[in-house]
C-alpha cells in the first residue's frame, strides 16, 4: 500500500460527502499527505544519527535519544494520518455492501444511491466521530510526549550509562518546530471541519425528520 492509494480511498468517499467533507479530504491530501511525503519525511530522516551528546560513553547517546524521543515525530505523524483516515473505510464498506445488495437483488434498492441516507447516515456519522476522537487523542499524545509541542535545541541527560549530566543537541530544531506547529494547526483544522460536518448533518436530518412528522 502507498500514500497515493490512501488518498484514492479518501477521494472515493467524496461521492457521499458534503461540501465540508470534501474540504476535509482536500486538507488531508494536500496539507498533510503531500507535506509529509514531499518535505517533512526528509527532515527527520537522519534524526538519530544527527543527535549529538558531549560524551563518548558507549550507549549514552542511544539512551538519551530514546528518553527524549520515545516515538519519532514523523512516525507518530504517519500513524496519525493512517488512523484518522481509517474510519472512512466504514463508509467504503457500507457503500460496497449497498452495491452488492443491489446487484444481488437485480434492482435498485436505494432511491438516492449517491446521497447519505438511512443506514449509511449512521455509518457516516460514526466515521466522523471516530476521526474527531482520533485527532484529539493524537494531539494529546504529541503534547504529553514532547512537553507541549516543543523542540528544544539543547537537552540535558543524566541517565545511565551517562557518566554525568551531559548536553545533547537536537538537529534542525527550528525546522522541526515549524513542522510540528503545522501538524498541530492542520489537526485542529480537521477537527473543526469534522465537528462542523457532524453538526450540519445532525441538524439537517433532525429538521427533515421534524418536517416529515
TrEMBL record:
Gene Ontology CC: connexin complex
Alphabetized SMART domains for the sequence: CNX, Connexin_CCC
Any Gene Ontology biological process: cell-cell signaling
MF term (GO), any: gap junction channel activity
Ranges of residues in domain Connexin N-terminal: 42-75
InterPro entries recorded: Connexin, Connexin_CCC, Connexin_CS, Connexin_N, Connexin_N_sf
Domain of life, per lineage: Eukaryota
Sorted UniProt keywords: Cell junction, Cell membrane, Gap junction, Membrane, Transmembrane, Transmembrane helix
Transmembrane segments: 20-39, 77-97, 118-143, 177-203
Residue span(s) of domain Connexin cysteine-rich: 134-201
Function: One gap junction consists of a cluster of closely packed pairs of transmembrane channels, the connexons, through which materials of low MW diffuse from one cell to a neighboring cell.
The protein's name: Gap junction protein
Amino acid at each position: 500500500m502507498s500514500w497515493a492509494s490512501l488518498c484514492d480511498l479518501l477521494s472515493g468517499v467524496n461521492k457521499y460527502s458534503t461540501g465540508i467533507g470534501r474540504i476535509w479530504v482536500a486538507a488531508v491530501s494536500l496539507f498533510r499527505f503531500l507535506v509529509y511525503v514531499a518535505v517533512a519525511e526528509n527532515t527527520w530522516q537522519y534524526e538519530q544519527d544527527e543527535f549529538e551528546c558531549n560524551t563518548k560513553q558507549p550507549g549514552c547517546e542511544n539512551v538519551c535519544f530514546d528518553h527524549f524521543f520515545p516515538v519519532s515525530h514523523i512516525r507518530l505523524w504517519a500513524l496519525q494520518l493512517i488512523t484518522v483516515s481509517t474510519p472512512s473505510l466504514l463508509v467504503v464498506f457500507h457503500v460496497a455492501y449497498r452495491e452488492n445488495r443491489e446487484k444481488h437483488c437485480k434492482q435498485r434498492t436505494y432511491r438516492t444511491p449517491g446521497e447519505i441516507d438511512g443506514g449509511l447516515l449512521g455509518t457516516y456519522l460514526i466515521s466522523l466521530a471516530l476521526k474527531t476522537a482520533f485527532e484529539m487523542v493524537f494531539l494529546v499524545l504529541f503534547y504529553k510526549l514532547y512537553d507541549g509541542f516543543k523542540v528544544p535545541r539543547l537537552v540535558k541527560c543524566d541517565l545511565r550509562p551517562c557518566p554525568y549530566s551531559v548536553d545533547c543537541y537536537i538537529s534542525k530544531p527550528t525546522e522541526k518546530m515549524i513542522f510540528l506547529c503545522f501538524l498541530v494547526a492542520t489537526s485542529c483544522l480537521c477537527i473543526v471541519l469534522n465537528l462542523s460536518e457532524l453538526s450540519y448533518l445532525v441538524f439537517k436530518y433532525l429538521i427533515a425528520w421534524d418536517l416529515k412528522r
